[in-house]
C-alpha cells in the first residue's frame, strides 16, 4: 500500500517535471546567437550601420547596398565554451544564509557556422542588391550531468557512494535562411539612404532528453527491480517565416544611422514526447501542435567615424524587444551594444566592445502557471583582423560573458528518498536519518553561475 | 562647429607652388592628375578625412599603398599647406585633457565636485577678478596663494599672463601649477558659447561586505535552537534571498548637462543603483522624484555692482560653507577631509548632479558675493528616506497624528515601499510563528520618501581684509507631518534588539544612537531641527587659520553660545616652498546630530556601535544602513598634524600625518600615524616606503578593545617612455589584539576550554600595476593583486574606486581608455576577483541544528564590468 502511494507521488513528480519546461537555462527561448561575423562580434555585436563585411546584411538588410560593392561572400565559424555551475544555498550554524555551494559543474563546447553572399549593381543613382544568408538563430544545445551521492565515508577521505546519475542532453538549432533585397539612393556626395527587406525561412529540429538513472551500487543496496529509472524524451520540429525591414542612412562622412524592425513571428512547433518510468512507458504524445512566439524587435544605432590618429569606427546601438507580446508576465526589454575599432597601425585593427542583453528563464509550475525571471548577460568582446589580400579578410573575435541568476533545482531531492520505493521507515541509501529529502522550491532556489568564452572566425571576400 | 581654415604661404614660395597639388585640399579629381592609381588617390583622401591632416609630405608613407618610390615621384608634385582646423573649445579641451582625466578618475572620492571643476577648466575665471573663496575652492590652491594674488591685484597690478602669475610674490610653485589651468588673464580661452556634456555609466558591481552581511541576515523563529525541529532553511527569509540579490543587476547612470558660457546652466541626472527600479520601468512621476536636475543663472559682471557675483539656482543644488559643520550636503563620507590640498570643499552654492539623494537640496538658492561681503539663502522642499517606526502590519506608527520617525538614512538600496512591506509581512510571519522574541516583528523599517522636509538656510559673510572673512550660517529643517523620536539609552536596546538574550551586546558606544536628535522629548515638542554656526578664516604671512563653530538647537537658546550640543574645528596651514604643515583640532559633541554636516573626522558616525558590530541582533538588519552609509563624523575630539617635505630632487616625504584623538562616546583614545618616503634617484624610477601605525585605546591595555596595527608598504615605480607606468608593490600588515579566551565551561580538569581568537594577525599582499599608452588616444591600465588577510582587510585604489579585500584571494582588472574623438571618451573596465571569506561553521542543507556541521571557507567569485561613455561638446 505504502509502495503504491509512494509510486503515485513519485509518478506525479515525474509528470510535473515532464510537463514543466526544462530547467536548464534557455531551453525554451534558446541561446540567442548574436552576430556570428567576427568583426561585429568583436565590436559588441554591433553593426546596424555596417559597410565593411558581407554579413552586415544579417543584422540590417539595408546594409547590402550600403556596402557599395558588386559582390561579397563570407563564412563564419563560431565556437563556444559554456561553464554551468549550480549551487545550493549554504547556511551557517545560526541558520544564516551566507552563500552558495556548487554541487554540479558542467563544461561543454558548442560550435556552429553561418554563410552570407550578395550581389549588387548600380543603375543610375540607384544601387540594387540581392543577397542570401544562412545562420543559426537560436541554439538549444545543452548538456548537463549531475551525480547524486551520499556523504558516507567522507570523514575518512573516501569518495562517497554514488546513488544516481542525472543527465540532460538537448540538441538542435533553429535555423534561418533569408533572402535579402536592398535599394540604395545617393542623396548627395556623402549622404545616402538604403532600404532593405529580409524574408527569412525558419526551421529546425530539436531533441531533449532528461534521465535519472540509479547506479548499480544503489540497485545492489536496495535490491533489484525496486528503484525505477526515469527517462523523458522529446522531439520538436520548428517551422515558420520571419520578416525584417531595415534602413541605413549615411548622414555625412562621419555619421551613419541604422534601424531595423523585425516583425513578431509565430512559429509552428510539432512535439512528440514520451516518458518512461522503470522501463515502462507511462505517458506519451505524438504530433502535438503548439505556437511559439518570437517577439518583435526594434533596433536603432549609430556609426561614428571621427578623425583619429588611429582610423576609428564607433558603434552604439539599442534594441527594444517586445517580450510582452508573448505574455503578460514578460516585460519589454532594452538591450545595449557598444563597439570600437581602432586601427593601431594601418591594417592592424584592435576591436573591443560591450553588450548587455536580456533574456528570460521560463518555468512552468505544478499548477501550470508560468514563472519568468529576467536575466541580464553582460559581455565584453575583443578581436582583430588579418588582411590576407586587399579584398580577403580573416577576422577574429573573442567574447566573454557571464550571468548569475536563480533557477529551480533541476532534479528534485525527494526522488532519491529510497523509503518511497522500499516502504521502509529508514534510509538504505543515505548514511543517517538526519537527512530530510525535501524538494527545494523558489524559497530555496539554485544559484546558477554561467560563463561563456566564445571565439568567432570569419573569412570574407568582397569584389 | 565653427571652423577657420588658415593658410600660410611663404611669399617667396608662392609662385613655384601654384601648379602643385595641395594634399590637404585636393579633390579626388585633382589627385588623379598625379601619377598614382585610383586606389592610392582614395587612400589619400581617406587618410586625410579619417586619420590625420597632412603635416608634411612624408606622412604619405603612413598609407600602405604608397611606397617609397611613389613618394619620391610625388614629392615634387605636391605641397602640404598648413591647415589648421581651429575650434576654441577643442583646443582648450586638448590643453586640459590630462586634468579632465584626473578629475574623472577622482570622481569617486570627490562626488559631485568634478563637474564644477571641469566647468572651471573649460571656462576659467579671470584671475584678476576672482574672490578669495574662488581661489580656495580650487584643488591644491591654498589661502596663502590666494592672498598673494589678491594683494597684488588690490595694489592695481594686473596679471597679464601665466609667466606674470608665476612671478607673484608669495605664490607657491604648487599653487601656481594647480591654479594656472583654472584661470585666464586677458581674454578667456573660449568665448561664450553653448556647451553640453552627456554621460552614460553601466556598472555591474557587487555589494560590499558590510551591506552583503546586512542583507544576508535571516528572520528566524526563536525556537530554531530546538534540535527536534526540522528547520525550514529558507533563503528568502533574508532580504538577500527575497529580493534575489544574486542576479546581475547593473548600476546605470545617465547625466546630461548644458550651459551657455558660465551664465545659463541646466542639467539632469538619473542614477539607478543595483536592486532599484530601472528608468524604463518607472512612471514619469517616479522619474522626476528620483532624478536630479537644475536650471541656473550666474552673472559675474553685474551692471551696477563692481566685481559682484550673482547665482540663482532652481532644482538641485549643493551648499557648502566653513568647515562643513553646519552645512555641506552630501551622502558620501570621506575620512580626514581637511579642506586642504586635494581634499577640498567648493564653497558656496553649486549645481548638483551628484548621486547624493538623501541630503540633496531641491528648491531655490540665491547667492550674491562681493570681495568684501557675501549673502546667500536657500530653500528646499524634498521627501527624504527615513527609518520609521512601524507596527506589526507594516504601517507607520503615529504620534499625535504625525509619523513617528527614528532617523534620516542613506539606504544601500532604495527599495520600493510596497515591495518592502510585502517582504516584511513575510518576515513578520516567520518571526511570530515560534516562541515569541522580546520584539517579534519588524518595528523599525526603511521607507522611501517617508519624511516631508522643508529646509531653509542662509549664510552671511564679511571679508574685511584680504584673506580674512567671518561668516554666519544657519539652516532650519521643518517637518510638518513627523516627529523624530529616539528613546533614552536604557529604552533603546529594547527597540533595536530583537532577542533579549542579546541585550548585553548593547554597549556604551550605542549612546551615539541614543543621541540622535528628537523633535519631541519630555521637555519640548517641536517640528524642526535647527543648526546655527559661524566660521572664520584669516591669513597671516604664510600661515592661514580657519575654523567653524556650530550648535544644534535643543534645550538651549538659539542666541546663547554653549548651551546646546556643539561642534567646533580650528585648523592652521603653514606654507613654505617645499614644505607645509597642517594642524587641526576638532571637537564634536555626541549629541550634535546634524545630518547636513560633513566635517573632518577619522571615523564615520556609528562605527563600532551595534549597528556595525551586531547586525544579527537588530530587530531589522537593514538598520545597519544607518552606519554603512552615514556621512556624518563620529563624535571625536582630537588633534591632527600633516606635512609634506621635499628635501631635494631625490628625496621627498610625501603626505604624512599624525592624528591623536578620543572617541567621545566611550572615551576610546587612538593614535594614527602614517608616513611615506619617496626616493627618486632618476626621474624614471621611484622607490616608496610607507609605514602606517594605529593604536586604539592606547592608554588601557587591560581593555579587550585594544588593537595595534602596523602596515609596511614598499613600492617600486618606473615611469617608462610614452608615459607608460609600471609599479610593483608589497604590503605587510600586523594587527595585535589582547588574548581573547573563550571558556565554554568553567576552567577545571575535564572541561572544554579553548582560546578562540588570535593575539596577532598577519597579512600581506603583492601587486603589480601597469599602464600602457598605445598612443595619445588609447590607454590600457591593468593590475594584479594577490593577498592574504587572515582577519585583516586590505585596500586597493583602482583607477576610479577603492576596493576592500578581506581574507585571502587574487584579483586582476584591466581598463581600456579610448578617446574615440576629441569629444568622446569611452572606458571599459573588467575586474575578476576570487576570494575566500572566513572559516565558518556550515550546516549541511536539510540537516537539523544538532546534525552534522562542517567548517568550510566560502569562496566567492566576482566579475565586474564598468562601461563609461562621455560626450563633451
Q: What this model shows, in words?
A:
Chain B: It comes from Candidatus Syntrophosphaera thermopropionivorans. Chain B: This is Helix-hairpin-helix domain-containing protein. The complex is a heterodimer of chains A (463) and B (873). Chain A is mostly beta strands. Chain A has a single domain (2-462), classed as Beta Barrel (Porin). Chain A is 9% helix and 60% strand. Chain A is built from 6 helices and 19 strands. In chain A, strands 2-3-4-7-8-9-10-13-14-15-16-17-18-19 form a 14-stranded antiparallel barrel. In chain A, a hairpin with a 4-residue loop joins strand 17 (370-387) and strand 18 (392-407). The longest helix of chain A is centred in the first third of the chain and has 18 residues, at 2-19. The model of chain A is unreliable at 1-23 (pLDDT under 50). Chain B is α+β, with helices and mostly antiparallel strands and 873 residues long. Chain B has 4 domains: 11-86, Orthogonal Bundle (DNA polymerase, domain 1); 88-191, no CATH class; 194-562 and 593-631, no CATH class; 681-873. Chain B is built from 18 helices and 36 strands. In chain B, the strands form 5 sheets. Chain B has a 24-stranded antiparallel β-barrel. In chain B, strands 1-2 form a two-stranded parallel ribbon. In chain B, helix 5 packs antiparallel against helix 6. Chain B is globular and about 100 Å long. Residues 1-18 of chain B have low confidence and may be disordered. Classes of the chains: A mainly beta (463), B alpha+beta (873). At the A-B interface, strand 2, strand 3, strand 14, strand 15 and strand 16 of A face helix 3, strand 34, strand 35 and strand 36 of B. Strand 2 of chain A pairs antiparallel with strand 35 of chain B, so a sheet runs across the interface.
